[in-house]
Fold each of these.
Amino acid sequence: MTRTSVTAGPSIESLAKNHDALLVLDVDEVVLEFIEPFGQLLEEHGARLHPESFKLTGNVRSISTGAALSGSQLDRVTEILYETQAARQTLVAGVEASLDRLSSRADILFLTAMTPSYYPHRRALLDSKGLHYPMIATERSKGAIVAELSERWPGPLVFADDLPLNLAGVRKSAPAVHLLHLMANTVFRPHLPPLPAGAHAAAEWGEAERIIEGILASAALDSALSV
């Protein structure tokens, strides 16, 4: 599918603001399973994931020859996954209930680096699962997007992602944002790079919800004491 834009979804200015707090969530491996269906798709195409370092390139090899798939081959498999995500990607355990509870205290936004042309596919999938929170799909830096969001939401603002590089990018662009690492699949965890200083880490949504609730409660207390 041809890429036609760098961003799809609502503009930041048009997002409804019902709370001072905002929870910004990556989608793959945070809201929707990615690694497991990606691995299944690789097997269908005669390849297998060997998670020997924290990357896909070089870790996906042909079952018959052992040769590593090229970046362009991996990109094509990823495109197939996004094209067929409604049939392949499922919700990360616990996410729906946790977000339902958290939505009473914070606005929620999905922020995905998925190719923006697949926005309608993902919007339909999330809606079918009852997750009607707004979503932005972008090829821009997540740090830049979160920095713009922080100008509208006075805080606290929590950003959750499975990639430490994205957490570091948000820390650089918006230092006051609370960072949370969450990765549903466990295969890459032994190779996880260091998280930015002060970032929180959760193994599953029950733990993530408790961390976010703590951040919100602390901010509420600070606000009350400053009055």
Note: The domain at 7-34+89-226 is CATH 3.40.50.1000 (Rossmann fold).
Amino acid sequence: MLTKDDSNKKAPFKKSFSKGRKKVKPEFEQKVIDIARVTRVVKGGKRFRFRTVVVIGDRKGKVGVGVSSGPDMRISTEKSYADAKKNMIVLGFTGSTIPYRVDQKLGSAKVLLKPATKGNGVVAGGAVRTVISLSGIKDISGKMLGAKSRLNNARATIEALKQFSVKKNREIILKKAEKVEVEKKPEAKKTTEKDQVKK
């Protein structure tokens, strides 16, 4: 039985080890933009699975969209994250906005992206806004003109941003370099029958 003296005593100090540990920041930020429950009818009844669409990005020019399904939410989200990481694009322009206007169609989804002045912010909605904000673009105007499917709109936005990707820029530079080389090469003189007779 507790006495009056025991009750007045303070509880012993417990050392917590969690405070000393630093939280490891993930490589990419992720956002789940769509969750769908997929049902498959089999002999014994119905089988339920979950399909998730995930957008990942580092807000510094890298962004990707992934989709996958699994028996529960956690597994499908992890698989979607891995799929998005495989299909990432790297933007290759400087500044807070895109260089020029882009109209992109993918399936029934249509996306329009326009450059905006500094301080305008991201004027877009739905999946387009998520992809743009995670890519690191700060000033842009976007519009969804086709279907409302979040997956298709996210993929259409990625396709539109691919025009400004490092990979695309390299391809354009290489094509220009090839054209210059072809133009610089002197044309070989055609030898006629008269020239051969002279020799």
Note: Residues 40 and 47 are 5 Å apart (CA to CA).
Amino acid sequence: MLTESEFVEKFAQRLLQKIDGLKIYSINHLEIRTEFQGSNENKHFLDNCYSEYLRDPNEIEEIIERYLNVGKSFYETKKEININNVLPVIKDGRFIQNLIDFDNNFENNIVFEKYNDELYIFYVEDTETNINYLTQEDFEKLNIEKSELKNIAIENLSNSVEIEKHGEDGYYMLVVDGNYESSLILLDIWNEENFDVDGEIIIGIPARDLLLITGKNDFENLSRMKFTINEINNEGDHLVSTQLFEYKNGKFELCDI
């Protein structure tokens, strides 16, 4: 197993091979700072990448290559956004804080909106090779309203995923493709016909690829859900939230159980 420093050094060397003219001027834990063609610095955060490696070390080459392709997009000339590829992703306050640490002016650079007291909706363009966050510059070129962007992104999500429901006895999990499970909270699927649970619908979304469902009166499965949420937040990657949410009046709100 590679240590953090060994892993980030390996990634840095592969990054230099991948991008001609790139300079690395600092490495700090799992953060790489680079300069390209005299431009402002870029930062590569490898926390999720290293977490994925720790969970599946035999797949190190596939994991690194996938993150390298994302990193390469930082330095390429941006192409026109295809609105049909825009999808919503769900993040929490921790992600907001990471953005602040990276860029104090991120609110003027990245397109996002508040969903509830805990969660935020960001927008990405999902291409064959990368998932790129929508910038304000990208959004302005689309020449649409923010509300229209949200509706289009949700419709794109609905059209692009096939939802599988697993589980029984009032405890369920939704599966799509490993990237947009948490985004399913935005779809119009949350009703008694789809989820036979005891009481109001309660969900947990500890990571982007895990959406758990049970009922508000089902104390055994609520306890099971809380355990899984804590476990994923301690050991997982691409984290979303530590909280439980209750479906009320057409959306999910924080639930204190």
Note: The chain has a mean pLDDT of 90.
